[in-house]
Fold each of these.
Amino acid sequence: MQDENYTVNEKGHLTIGGVDALDLAAQFKTPLVVYDVSQIKKQIRAFQLAFEKRNVNAVVSYASKAFSAIAIYQVVNQMNAHIDVVSGGELYTAIKANFPMKNVSFHGNNKSVEELEMAVENKVGVIVVDNFYEIDLLSQILKFRSEKIKVMLRLTPNVSAHTHEYIQTGQADSKFGFDVKSNQASEALRMVLENPQMELIGFHAHIGSQISAVEGFKMEVQNLMKIVHKWSQDFHYQPQVLNLGGGFGIRYTELDQVLAPEIFVNAIVDELIDQCNKYQLKQPAVWIEPGRSIVGPAGYSLYTIGSRKEIPDLKSYLTVDGGMGDNIRPALYQAKYEAVLANNPKAPIKETVHIAGRYCESGDILIDEQSLPETKPGDVLAILATGAYGYSMASNYNRVPRPAVVFVENGKAQLVIKRETYDDLTSRDCEYQKEN
Ligand SMILES: *Cc1c(COP(=O)(O)O)cnc(C)c1O
């Protein structure tokens, strides 16, 4: 049986990647994060194929802050896709995964000297330079070395994609990138072009997140190509690569309108061809950096239902064994999700409840209003589409160990991140030294 966003087996249980969700919960315990690997691969492939169909030289670079782990880097590499990393920790994880360093883009608005050295040392594919301080640090690091490093300049192209304020990054007042209007960007360009150890391969911009319309990307291409045109005259420089960032929206709830990868890609390619014709510029390669749309829909959070609080004539809380420690998005920016009862997603709806987390914060509500069949303690609840920015933002708040992460593919499950233990929690604590 096939619903639009989940599947059930002959027992009527939710299945993920062909595996019964109740078996996963029994084997690996809850809370548990489960990824359907075939969904991840399909989504990467859909972006790649859309560019191939248009004969456009393109790179799909998975923005790994959405979910970073050795295993996901290995899946992405199997798909011949690139990755974005934003920290030494993500870079280290990619190294441990044997991810080809030439396919790594290093982002961030405050990369440390150690992180930049690590990137240069490991020959990452490209450093996406964000600010003047970084140009300075990188120049100093390169001065004592012989190698050249590929760089891109991150620009803020004055596009604000329609999305939640907390997750906007493309507008002029953003903390990210060089401002184009005030000529900071052209000054940065001059500095990078003058440095013989920096090979500028192109420009980067990222306009926002959870974007559900193509207009923002079209405006982004227009604004970037206007700059490219100007700079091709002022500096006689033309980029090999235009990196348009990520932000492709996904379906969290039935209220979300989503566009297929092909729709985004076609809009981008159409606009790029128009702009290149208009300015008589040669067409750069297009890089995109989807994060959420690669891992979001493929992820499921399994929880065990515990206590229940009824407030007569007001509301009912159903509490699960996880919450803001494994998914802070609802508490952080009112993110919406949908859940199903894993033992019987198709059972008749009985009531609408508030799905509360187990953490000591009133704001720890995973889902504000969820219609559910009758439930009892011990039942497994599955929240859908939790694969992006859930585990990757997980914390040990309340000293709750972070959940395990499991990949399922072709009807088989494999553990990819072990559940934290209480010993893990205290392993870096040091005893208080009493003065005497
Ligand atoms: C976060 C980020 C992305 C990915 O955004 P999604 O909304 O997850 O697709 C891509 N590029 C940059 C530079 C980012 O900071």
Amino acid sequence: MLLHPSFDVNAAGHLTVAGFDACELAEQFGTPAYFLDEDAVRAQCRLYREAFRESFGGSSLPAYAGKALCCKKIYSVIAEEGLAADCVSPGELHTAYKAGFPMEKVFFHGNNKTDEDLRYALDLGVGHIVVDGWDELCALEKIAAEKDARPRILLRITPGIDPHTHKKIVTGSVDSKFGVAVATGQAFGFVRDALGCSHLVLDGFHCHVGSQIFDTEPFEDACDIMLAFIAKVRADFGFEAKILNLGGGFGVRYVEDDPEVDIRGNIARLGAEIDRMCALYGVEKPAVVMEPGRSIVAAAGCTLYTCGTVKSIPGFRNYVSVDGGMPDNPRYALYQSRYTIVNASRASAPADFPCTVAGRCCESGDLLSEDAVLAEPKRGDIIAVLVTGAYNYSMASNYNRIPRPPLVLLSKRGAEIAVRRETYEDLTALDL
Ligand SMILES: *Cc1c(COP(=O)(O)O)cnc(C)c1O
């Protein structure tokens, strides 16, 4: 096993992904291409569902955050595994709908939903709209009245927690474009006004503290703040929250020195904390929702590239250029995200060639890693970047007019294309 159960090395010395030989996959589907171990995704879904049943009980349910990886096939898998879903745009809603996802199990997020977005969500029968602020509350009340609808809502609350992750992915602190803060007292006014909306049915509250979080402390802190908030709201307004949605954010191991995350243990600790706080405040235990994205799909995915130019600059460093880069994986350029990169063609040879792995864009920031150590690659070798199941395909662009790679699902049934490779014709299809 290499980092996660989906990755290994076979007798030919090639990397395997979900048991498939990476070099054969590259041959069959071309490069660059994304591969996803479907059975590993299903296993993560089951792990979450079982942990929720054990530790949260009632009608508690994990909701897959589609922004991590969004396409019809994924929503079908998620629906089959019985999870709810979190969508953050009308495009994601549309994709879920086209996949036949049960829309009553969808939470619709976003800090700036347009009137059109809200109308579309109501037309599709979205289960809960997570209202982010006063403007949206008023807009939704008006639209619901026009449509004579009674949408169910959660209110997005910022508990004011800095989970000590990268600043660009911190969203739960008070100074945030998302939600309404407890710390400023504004959250109470938000609840009062929501309860005053005759067309909206308030079911509870949502918060999200951040992403790639390795310990449970930020989540436990969020539980404490949110349950104290729920207790005060009940005392002030007589409103008992039925749902507490704690958002996403469990971390994933990208490199050897990242810790392993014990999802079941973390959820058990959160369950115990929620029970303790509910008893302390004498509030009814709400149904708990969490919205894992990364921790469902990241470790099941990898991207295969073909090695092109290998260049050594004496006294400086080695560059290994691959046939993809920031258009298919912008995370290094955005956040200096660390990855494990393997020469899939020589996976049992000693990794002793330190290098910077670069993409093919006209942009010097187009890098995938600056501290990779590979078995020395030759032009034509297959290079694998592991743990790319989340925030790769979903963040891909056509920068430099590079067609987006296909997404291939791997399972015991075989290899199945979930999203086909873009063609040059696709690239000009919208040009008039
Ligand atoms: C990003 C996000 C998630 C998913 O976060 P992960 O780190 O991928 O688990 C869930 N809910 C909300 C509201 C988000 O913004």
